[in-house]
């Protein structure tokens, strides 16, 4: 069974022993075929944990029936099933397609843990549609790379096992296996750009050039290879431009050509998982934020956050929760998850003093972690005298929006350390080192 072998090979390249497989099960033909392939795989690998997740958008009058169908099919195939109901909140400039896609992937992300693999059913014809949509938007090589067969996604990986398979081959398999599937009536609505391409444009192109979809996939792959090469060449240069708190040096970018500077800015934002700005937004970013007057406090607002300038560096500032009221007890023996996706704190053994090494024997009281510097003072190791935390943050050049998001270790109402910044003189030593994994 050629399609199953392709499916198995795609999984084998991404799975490790601890990986769980999560299938995004819409109930359409493509995901229904994936469900059958996953069932075959699960029987051959009985120790592998597999889960099918259906996202209920509530956009169709048939949504409840689709959920019931997906649950029944998963049960028949012997695959554990889960469903998530989502509500869409549409902005004035956002399409229903994008809102539904974003809500769907956000819901799926809740099931994907470290090293897990998320399966989605995009195929060769979907790739051609994605490429043409990127072309319509005037995208460069990054956008024209379209969809990857295997990519890092959230805490795990996203794998598209059918991406090199035509829809007709998938349909043949579905019919051969006598499968049932959901038919979404909205897929016929050509007011949506993707449906317009699917029903009115691609049939003409495929009739004229039967290998058109394969050629598009090849072009997308070449664009992706070009992007990978540029990343490999420019990532070390970008890393050298970044400060300890993630700020990007404006002075390092200034002498570069506009083409190279814009690419480095895009790469910086991409590594931060930020939706890439348009060409016009990049111009605004450089001219009105990076090159603003020294006494200005410029800001470029984007969908999920904003870009701000401080002390000669550009910073990405996400829309975030106020964590200044948070307080957590910590015994230092295991990793401590921080609120609002601020990462983890951990302590490792140390053999010599360093910036963030502690004297464990000085920690005679329970340690707590807080984020509110108000009213606190500290005496950083290597500096003279004690200072108010507000003053220290100014001296350490901490941007104002980060000053209540830095983890502060406390013991007996005294500051032990501020993660990645300093250890108080009274608690400094060489026993162990404080690490903040962001």
Distance from N terminus to C terminus (CA atoms, Å) equals: 44 Å
* Count of individual domains: 3
- Give the structural class: alpha+beta
CATH architecture of the largest domain: 3-Layer(aba) Sandwich
| Overall geometric form | globular
Give the uncertain stretches in residue-range form.
Answer: none
CATH fold descriptor of the largest domain: Rossmann fold
Assigned CATH superfamily of the largest domain: HUPs
Quantity of strands, as a count: 21
Helix content: 25-40%
Total count of helical runs of at least 4 residues: 13
Catalytic activity: cytidine(34) in tRNA(Ile2) + L-lysine + ATP = lysidine(34) in tRNA(Ile2) + AMP + diphosphate + H(+)
GO molecular function: ATP binding; tRNA(Ile)-lysidine synthase activity
Protein name: tRNA(Ile)-lysidine synthase
Family: Belongs to the tRNA(Ile)-lysidine synthase family.
Task: Characterise the protein shown here.
- This is tRNA(Ile)-lysidine synthase.
- It catalyses: cytidine(34) in tRNA(Ile2) + L-lysine + ATP = lysidine(34) in tRNA(Ile2) + AMP + diphosphate + H(+).
- 38% of the residues lie in helices and 19% in strands.
- The longest helix has 30 residues.
- It folds into 3 domains: 212 residues, Rossmann fold; 77 residues, Chorismate Mutase Domain, subunit A, CATH 1.20.59; 111 residues, no CATH class.
- Helix 1 packs across helix 2, helix 2 packs across helix 7 and helix 5 crosses helix 8.
- By secondary structure, the protein is α+β, with helices and mostly antiparallel strands.
- The mean pLDDT is 91.
- The strands form 5 sheets. The chain has a 6-stranded mixed sheet, sandwiched between helices. It has a 5-stranded antiparallel sheet with strand order 11-15-18-19-20, with no helix packed on it. It has a 4-stranded antiparallel sheet with strand order 7-10-9-8.
- A hairpin with a 2-residue loop joins strand 18 and strand 19.
């Amino acid at each position: 069974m050629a399609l199953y072998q392709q499916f198995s090979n795609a999984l084998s390249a991404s799975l490790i022993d601890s990986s769980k497989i999560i299938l995004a099960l819409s109930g359409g033909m493509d995901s229904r075929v994936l469900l059958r392939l996953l069932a075959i795989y699960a029987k051959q690998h009985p120790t592998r944990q597999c889960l099918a997740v259906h996202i209920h958008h509530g956009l169709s009058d048939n949504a409840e029936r689709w959920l019931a169908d997906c649950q029944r099919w998963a049960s028949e195939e012997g695959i554990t099933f889960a469903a998530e109901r989502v509500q869409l909140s549409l902005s004035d400039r956002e399409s229903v397609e994008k809102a539904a896609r974003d809500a769907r992937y956000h819901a799926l992300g809740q099931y994907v843990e470290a090293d897990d693999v998320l399966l989605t059913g995009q195929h060769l014809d979907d790739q051609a549609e994605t490429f043409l949509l990127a072309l319509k938007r005037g995208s460069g090589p990054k956008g024209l790379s379209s969809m990857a067969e295997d990519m890092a996604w959230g805490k795990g990986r996203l794998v598209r096992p059918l991406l090199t398979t035509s829809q007709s081959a998938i349909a043949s398999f579905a019919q051969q296996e006598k499968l049932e599937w959901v038919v979404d009536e909205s897929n016929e609505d050509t007011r949506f750009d993707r449906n317009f391409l699917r029903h009115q444009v691609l049939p003409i192109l495929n009739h004229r050039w039967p290998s058109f979809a394969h050629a598009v996939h090849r072009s997308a792959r070449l664009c992706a290879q070009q992007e990978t090469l540029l990343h490999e060449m420019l990532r070390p240069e970008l890393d050298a431009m970044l400060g300890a708190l993630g700020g990007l040096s404006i002075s390092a970018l200034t002498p570069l050509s506009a083409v190279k500077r814009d690419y480095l800015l895009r790469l910086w934002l991409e590594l931060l998982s930020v939706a890439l700005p348009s060409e016009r937004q990049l111009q605004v970013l450089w001219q009105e934020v990076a090159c603003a007057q020294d006494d200005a406090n410029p800001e470029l607002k984007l969908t999920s956050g904003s870009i701000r300038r401080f002390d000669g560096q550009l910073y990405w500032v996400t829309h975030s929760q106020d964590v200044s009221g948070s307080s957590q007890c910590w015994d230092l023996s295991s990793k401590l998850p921080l609120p609002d996706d601020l990462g983890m704190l951990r302590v490792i053994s140390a053999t010599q003093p360093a910036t963030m090494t502690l004297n464990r024997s000085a920690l005679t009281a329970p340690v707590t972690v807080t984020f509110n510097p108000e009213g606190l003072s500290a005496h950083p190791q290597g500096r003279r005298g004690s200072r108010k935390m507000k003053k220290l943050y100014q001296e350490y050049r901490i941007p104002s929006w980060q000053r209540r998001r830095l983890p502060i270790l406390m013991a007996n109402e005294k500051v032990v350390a501020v993660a990645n910044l300093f250890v108080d003189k009274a608690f400094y030593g060489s026993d162990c080192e404080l690490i903040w994994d962001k």
